[in-house]
Structure formats: structure tokens, C-alpha cells
Amino acid sequence: MTLTPGQYLRTRREAAGLSIADVAERIATVPRWAQHLRRGWLAEIESDQMPASFNTIVVLHQVVQFDLGVLVTLSAEGVEAPRLCVVCACSEAAPCVGHAGPCSWISDDRCSACPGSAPRSNADGA
After folding, report:
1. Which GO terms describe its molecular function (predicted)?
2. What is the pLDDT at residue 119?
3. Any idea where the domains of the chain sit in the sequence?
4. Which pLDDT score, from 0 to 100, does residue 122 have?
5. Sites in the chain below the pLDDT cut of 70
6. C-alpha–C-alpha distance, residues 66 and 11, integer Å
């Protein structure tokens, strides 16, 4: 699964169950921006209309769990994209961690923690 940096950030935010408004409420800007301006700014980052600065990435990382290495790799030209889940964009280096522990890969592009990820039994023809 190849994502742009903005798509990766959006997918990780959504996997955390957070809206753009939730993230905008939890981050600080200097000078202080109104929440509607922060929401618009985050939407531009997630749609790749505006690149995220290093400081922005640090602030976002404090609110949304994502793999900094994956973000760097997705931002680099000519580098092979990392393996990511098509649903939540978790990676091998940063798996989902839930009640049952870290997720595992059940197919080339899906982790065991995502909805619809139950492994098929041999009776299903798998």
C-alpha cells in the first residue's frame, strides 16, 4: 500500500478514532490560532496541499500515534514504500496494540486488528 504523507497521517488519525476537530483541539499553535483555522490547516496537510514542517510533525505525533520512520520513507523520492495495513496504516515497526497485544499480518496488506481481518479457515477455501 503506497500512501502520500498526508494520506498516512489521515489514516493513522482515523485509526485512532480521532476527527480533525479532535486533533485541532489538542494541539497548540504559536501564535494561537482559532480552532477552525487549525482544522483547515490540518485538512490541507492531510490532503497534501501543504507539507508538514518538522515542528508540526512533532506536535501531531504527541496527539496521534504514527511511525516517524514510515512518514520519512513516504516523503522520500525513490525509496520503496513500507508495508502498511490498508485499513489502519500500521506498519511492521509500529503494529496496532490492543487488548490481545500487537497485531500480526494476516495477508500482504492487512493486519489482524482491523475489521474484516479475521483469517479465513480452510473450510472457506483459504
Report:
1. DNA binding
2. 45
3. 5-124
4. 36
5. 1, 98-99, 116-126
6. 10
Residue-level pLDDT at 120: 39
What CA–CA distance (Å, rounded) separates 41 from 116? 33
Supply φ then ψ for residue 35, to 5 degrees: -60, -40
Cα(90)–Cα(11) distance, rounded to whole angstroms?
9
pTM value?
0.83
Q: How far is CA 4 from CA 51, 52, 88, in A?
A: 11, 12, 14
